[in-house]
């Protein structure tokens, strides 16, 4: 996890439910409407960035241990690693890939929140 305004120590001190989003089999919607407290906590040092997280920003679909896809449900910028994902586009995700939330600044996208795709701590 990287969140603008929070250093590694501050991120490490966050509760597990804020540091990661655990996915069940099936569809998980991600955004301010669904994980409000997590996004508010992650962006505590940069609260104006919340306006760049849509109510429903991302749809994640988990099928078994090895199949995970992401769909951008928002007009706000979303990246998979360094590649932009347009609204409505879907892409497969692999372990260690990064979902990046960005804002427009001086004509360029600036990433303010990055989340890494990882397996659950228990390996499940």
From TrEMBL:
- InterPro entries with a match to the protein in the record: FHA_dom, SMAD_FHA_dom_sf
Using the record's annotation, list all stretches that form the FHA domain: 28-85
Protein name as annotated:
FHA domain-containing protein
